[in-house]
Amino acid sequence: MPTNKFLVDTSRCIRCTGCEAACKQFNEVPQGIRRLRVVTINEGKPGETNVPMPCMHCTKPPCLSACPVTAIYKRDDGVVLVNKDKCIGCGYCLYACPFGAPQFPDTGLFGSKGKMDKCTFCIEPFNQKDEDGNLIQREAKPRCSVFCGTKALLAGDIGAITEEYKKRIAGKLPSGAVPDVA
Amino acid sequence: MNRVKNSLKTTRRSFLKGAVTLGAAAALGGYAGLTRNSPLNLFEAASAAPAGEEKLIKTICPHCSVGCGTLGRVVDGVFVGQEAWADNPLNLGGMCSKGASIRDIVVSEKRLKYPMEKSGGVWKRITWDEAINKIAGKMNEIREKYGPDSVMLLGSAKTTLHESYLQRKFAAFWGSNNVDHQARICHSTTVGGLIPTWGHGAQTDNYNDLRHSKCLFFIGSNAAEAHPVAMQHALIAKERGAKIVVADPRFTRTASKADLHLRLRPGTDIPLILAICNVIVNNKWHDTAFIEARTHGFDEFWDVCKDYTPELAEDITGVPADKIKEVARIFKENGPMAIIWSMGGTQHSVGSQNIRSYAILQLLLGYVGKSGGGCAALRGHDNVQGTTDMGCLSHYLPGYQSVSSEPAWKMWCNIWGIGYDDMVKRFASKDLMLRNGMTDSRWYEGAIRDDINQPNRIKMVIVWGHSLNSITQMKKEKKALEEVEMIVNIDPRATMTSSLPERNDGIIILPAATVMEKEGMVVTSGRSAQWRYKVIDPLFESKSDLEILKLLADKLGFGQYFTYSSVDDIYTKEICKGVRSIGMMGRTPDRIRKHMENSSTFDPENIMARGGPCDGEYYGLPWPCWDEKHPGTPLLWDDSKPVSKGGHDFRALWGDKVADNKYKLHVGESMLKAEGGKKMYSNAAGVNYALDTTGEAVQLALAAGDPPTGRGRARFWAWDLTDPVPIHREPIESPRPDLIAKYPTYADKDKTYYRVPCEFKTAQNPELVKKFPIILTTGRQVEHMGGGAQTRGSKILAEIQPDMYVEINPTLAGNIGVKEGEMVWVESNQGKVLVKAKITERVNEKTVFMPYHWAGVFEGASYEDRYPEGTGEYVYGDSCNIVTAPGYDEITAMQETKVGLCNVYKAQGG
Residue B356: which CATH number? Predict the structure, then answer.
């Protein structure tokens, strides 16, 4: 069983926001909900760095510990999901999450925030269930990563993406040496 | 003022409110019924687990020129989503936000759904028959009253290759050269600078080849925002050790990836490049063997260049002399280096000469025609290279044949099956047929002034796939749209064409299909063609441009010349036959589709297929592709390979000797390569390969192992240009009166300049800086494209980038008392715009920046209610081209958007 993670190669991210759009179109995420957002630090200055921020699918998710109704669960492949039937919209997961991953469709101080939504590694769209009420469970293949314009956002088994990243920082491409073009 | 502010707030609020309601399927109930017999709601379709099988259709992104492939997911004829086309060798599945949300544009409920007419101040739905009858009727009326030249046709770089070709052909059969498109304001100066240097005007390499560069020099290109997926290849090069140098007035996102950023003053590329050349030659770092064997005119060049010392350049450009010296060393020590530019280089009154200076730097270093080197002119639109090749321009016929060339007209008449004399009769006169038409950048002048080089003013304008807010001088444009008798807007969306003018009658809009709803070839900036398969049938009543062309041609009485048994016929029987100058002969639809189907066999390292049915061919058969066996030419001017394997050489465009010239210099010197030089090939009857439809000349050349273009020399010194060697000339709106005196712009042009006089010297006012002390430059946001008509109508993109803004340096903001997010006026000699302040160090305290994708607000007034009901955009903003400068390139009439003068001040109550 793989252990799924995201890994951001910040040297490659150019904030083209392809990941944000790919996520929105594939998971039919409504406006106002951002399962992933590119964060930029030092904008416009030397040291400008972009970091796509989806749910990090933590090894020990603090959101899971904070959830009072055990709506949040972690699958064997490392993906953290939320059962929207159980979620009461209290927002404690948002307080617990260091990355701001949990999203809520509604705002307001005393009203409900609505059911929590977040990155599902593309396993579940925003509406978790199909027309017949069955839970949709797709393959764990984040479209933010496969659509990433510069291949900055790596996703998948922790071993494989670490290997890919190591090759990059060693100054080599996965395909090996540069072939002779002539 | 308050009214303005309130209307802006309302715009934003209604957008956000729209966000809530749009999420609910109920709001879209009426929409589903309009899809082709499908019960599925388009917005819900992907998760609705449809009964039908899902098909994946290979298609090409409709935005920039990288040519990213993507897969359309289609169920029962409904476009339900997108998947990554992971083995497309150009993008490996990668897309920016625009590309990853194509479906959102296609299924946007803000699209035009049926033909409409504005009459009596009201938008009314009309039928296609009515619309075509009215348009053709008015065209014929104008022909009778004013002549065919009083109709202006603005074509589109968003069309497929064959549609663009037919737009040009349509203008010819209509009888006017008043046809142009976005290439004029995109990279016309790249063509204007590169052809006089080495014979062809396109990017010499391709995006993938950037991987092999040892240094990438971005000058006037913010690829990270304008061509994001190109950065995939650039950053791979960086991982392999390449240096990245970015010359840009802004610290762009591209600059954030660079080893060195040169913050030059806008409009000073030439002194910067000449100073780099100066350092190179003084250190003897130039490639003398290459210069000796393959170029001409080095001495004349050095005669100019020797005066441009780094110290002089520091004064003009603002880049420290030490940095200029450092850059020259980086270029020498990290070869081959590739120069990459975009509209930061082209959109200047010295645009063509900017580009020439870039090419000259590459000639000097011998970095041309080599993998990793060359000139990467990153073009703007998905098919703008193709539409330029098809000559949808007022001075060209397809294949870069001048409209002044009778032999070229004769060849095309022959292909079109019409006698030359009959064609002449379609024009007002032979003289007008052989005369450059009006340009995309200045067509409006033809509608509002009388001192023009044609019998009557423009009386009707057909805007066919073009957002007019990407053209400068919008106030004049608005006036022109109010003066003409009829406006026709053919587009998937209602654009500013129909909402800019204050008029109650005489506007017809036709719903064109989006690019996903039709098929055809599109050409990347790297000259590779791809076949864009049709994802779904046109929605609503929209029709493809091909259908619309046919309807209009039929009604105007020349439909028999627009009758084809299939789309392929247009290519095999006409385009491949006639567009010979750049070698379209071997690029048949069948071969290109074979490449699409076997995309996985192409190596992203060099876009060559290994094994499989396309073995040895280059992806998309980059032109020149001389015959049906030729593999395409991935790198122009690369003489290290045989021509049959994609080799090439400098085009012998100037014959074998230097012609007589006004300087009486170097006359009779050889213009052929030192060893193995060859003239351009002709057939036995003496017809040049470009016009020889028998193909004999091409076969003669290939048999001899030569490109049909010969083996000539590139020119440092172009004796037929106003400036044979690039020299500095201050922009039309310059903040340096002292430098205007020393480096003035060109003399004014009379009405032979694309039919409309143009002020250069007269427009360059040294006093202007007193009133408008801040430099204004413009550019792109990654989420939007061109005039933004499509992307601002995408819910996804509107959410990610909802704002028009002006970038202001914190120091300048402090001086003028403006805080982040406040509304400010940006005012110039041309007009003013009301936009939000974005405080950032991207720009320095002398410069402000605005993106150019915005419309729907005009000088602070909302035009939202002028869009026909049910159309429009999700986000609106004021248009920066209201305030950009009135400068134009001397050779091509490219507009000068990248440097102007303005003032910025806080809006009352802002």
Answer: 3.40.228.10
